[in-house]
Amino acid sequence: MTAAAGELNVTHSAVSRQVQHLEELLGVQLFEGPKNDLRLTEAGRLLLPGLTAAFDQIEAAVRLVADTEGGSLNISCLGTLTMRWLIPRLYRFRAEHPGIEVRLSASDSPVDFARDGFDVAIRVGREPWPENVDVHHLFAEQFGPVLAPRLARQSADFSGITLLHTRTRPHAWSDWCERSGLELNTSSGTEYEHFYFMLEAATAGLGVCIAPWPLVADDICAGRLIAPRGFISSGQDYVALTRRSRKHRKSALFCDWLQSEARQFDGPPPGQ
After folding, report:
1. Which of 40, 70, 139, 189 is 20 to 30 Å from 197 at the Cα level?
2. Which residues does residue 73 pair with via DSSP β-bridges, in sequence order?
3. What secondary structure, in 3-state letters, does 121-164 show?
4. Which of 104, 102, 106 is nearest to 79 (CA)?
């Protein structure tokens, strides 16, 4: 009751009266137990999932037509990019727009705004992008092998060093070898389920992996990883996608901020 009162900005007793009124209308009891330990009755538990889904649908529908500079903004972003690039910079957006609550969800699946209800989706890939979306270019992806400094001293061509792979980008090594001209047996090594697991393994000295610059920039600057062969273009781009049919001020503000951050983050320095 207290949490509901806080969310609705009314008093505790006002919520309690409304619940009592609802119980009278329905002819069933929805809560039981003492005031300091209320629990849903069987009727309450049956009612809860239907009402939850209905209110979620109402919220999603309202967000589709609302055009304000405050409230929530749902962002879908690649999980590792969220952790290693977006979140460390997000405090600057909050400082500029304190009235916007950014809600983050990790996903690398194809974008479907009608199905998922996101306001902005950040993805990496190549054209063509989905139809009926506006594409806000962030930066071209550059990638290369990275490893812990102590491992780099063992071999200049990575011989004898375990190659690290990830299921989410299984052809990273072969793609990099083709673009760099270095011949390696890329079929061996250790595979990780998630990209950030692989990056943690590289940082811990378990091997060498192929990584995009945005995901390892902070680690390289801090000396936790090094990139002995630098970074080259992968042919992919990081973009922010928004629905073309509805243009919201919150989405526009966020995409403008993303592009401003991307301009400051214009690739690895020479020699990296």
Report:
1. 139
2. 102
3. EEEEECCCCCCCEEEEEEEEEEEEEEECHHHHCCCCCCCCCCEE
4. 106
Structural domain tally of the chain? 3
Question: What does the mean pLDDT of the chain come to?
Answer: 88
- Say if residue 54 is in the same domain as residue 183: no
User: Which 3 state secondary structure label does DSSP give 108?
Assistant: coil
CB atoms within 10 A of CB 119: 22
Q: Higher-confidence residue: 5 or 251?
A: 251
Looking at residue 99, the DSSP 8-state letter turns out to be: T
pTM exceeding 0.85:
no
- Determine the residue type at 95: A
Enter the DSSP assignment of 86.
I
Which of 47-77 are b and which e, b meaning 16 or more Cβ less than 10 Å from the residue's Cβ?
Answer: beeeeeeeeeeeeeeebeeeeeeeeebbbbb
Full domain range(s) for residue 106: 71-140+236-264
Cis peptide before 128 (omega within 30 of 0): yes
14 within a domain of the structure (yes/no): yes
Please indicate, yes or no, whether residues 95 and 56 belong to a single structural domain of this protein. Answer: no
* Residue from 84, 63, 85 nearest 74 by CA: 63
